[in-house]
Design goal:
- The protein is α+β, with helices and mostly antiparallel strands and about 200 residues long.
- It is about 45% helix and about 15% strand.
- The strands form two sheets. A five-stranded mixed sheet has the order 3-7-6-5-4. It has a two-stranded antiparallel ribbon with strand order 1-2.
- Helix 6 runs antiparallel to helix 7.
- This is Cytochrome b5 heme-binding domain-containing protein.
Length: about 200
Amino acid sequence: MAPRLGFEGQFPVPLDDTIACTETIFTPEEVLSHNTPEDCWLIIHGNVYDVTSWVPHHPGGSLIHVNAGKDSTQLFDSYHPLHVRKLLERYCIGSLKLGENPYTDVCSFQYKNSGGEDFYLTLKSRVENYFRMMKVNSRVHPHMFMKSVLLLAIYMMSYLFTFYWGGSFLLSIFSTVLMGFMVAEIGICIQHDANHGAY
């Protein structure tokens, strides 16, 4: 059953967070067998989550099942604001049983000699708190729109010079190279920002 949702800003959050994770223990092999969009389990911070019912509603689309059945800790932490953890708790069905070497049991990136410190989450928490205190929306900024308009305008001008206004061979070659560069910039800048929901 999907949780009842309220909204914090533009993100759904559970209306109550009283459901705790069960004490069921799963092996990595058991979790790995749930690796499709129709049966999607994730391992995040050593806990196992059955997010199958959330897959069709996931704002990030199909990215949720890219690492289904495996450790998705780094993907989850890097793509989600901290308040999304409240929603995630609703899908917890147990924890992961690790063997003698947890690094080979579950494919997960770990910093050597981290001492249990979670630098990334500490930093992320401080940045989110700063944005909240300064009342800054980290996903929308006028510079992003100005950059997008500039990139698209340069692309259109280079296209027109390449195919219509190029009076010389050298000008056409230069315009073609510039057009190729602008296509890459549109992919790197505009599409990348949009994929992170930054518009």
